[in-house]
């Protein structure tokens, strides 16, 4: 049985208002669960988490969200709404990889790529998290993907295209893969960037039991770093949250569990359940 991976977005404040805004833009979107500073949502059927407050991490383009659209009209509609209060990084138009494409940063600082393509090419997943390896991690995309292939029991490469010329020849121009049923994309940046992965966007792994939490935590932090409250970072700078799949139920049923969680690095399910 596979267990879900999904992205988490950290907001400085007003996470619920921001998430409601996204829900108004994408069909098949809704807030599913709320608990204090976190909300679980889905945008176009794809699970996300919203986190309110905490350290003021700044989003950047290192993790963006590719929205697969099957018509120009659909792209135009998303673009018009998402760019309100934001700005274009790559204007809508014709590009070598798509007949109609654009990249924007929204009013909350998060990045979206709108791509004219086919949902059948991305396993019918409307929104695809896209990782860009740059800065000190430039050129490490394929090494990272090979690590993720060993990390996730359910992993499949669905294509890797490399730069065939220029400064970054041999590095990954575009890759698509699935990890525990989530479709993701990844690339090495095609130009020099002055940013790296930010904790403003993390990836959550829901685990069925303590053994699975231990497995992911130990594997990711072996050459990465530990942080507080289920957070850790792999050797490529990507932030992960390793949580039990029933965390929301635990926090709802035990009002003291959140206080205990804040004191932990790796989460210990039994301690969360027994905290008084």
UniProtKB/TrEMBL annotation:
Question: Could you tell me one molecular function GO term of this UniProt entry?
Answer: methyltransferase activity
The residues covered by the PhnB-like domain are: 4-114, 125-243
SUPFAM superfamilies membership: Glyoxalase/Bleomycin resistance protein/Dihydroxybiphenyl dioxygenase
Using the record for this protein, list the coiled-coil segments as residue ranges, or answer none. none
Alphabetical list of Pfam families matching this protein: 3-dmu-9_3-mt
Q: Keywords of this protein's UniProt record, alphabetized? A: Methyltransferase, Transferase, Ubiquinone
For this UniProt entry, which segments traverse the membrane?
none
Q: What is this protein called?
A: Glyoxalase superfamily enzyme, possibly 3-demethylubiquinone-9 3-methyltransferase
Tell me the organism's taxonomic lineage: Bacteria, Pseudomonadati, Pseudomonadota, Gammaproteobacteria, Moraxellales
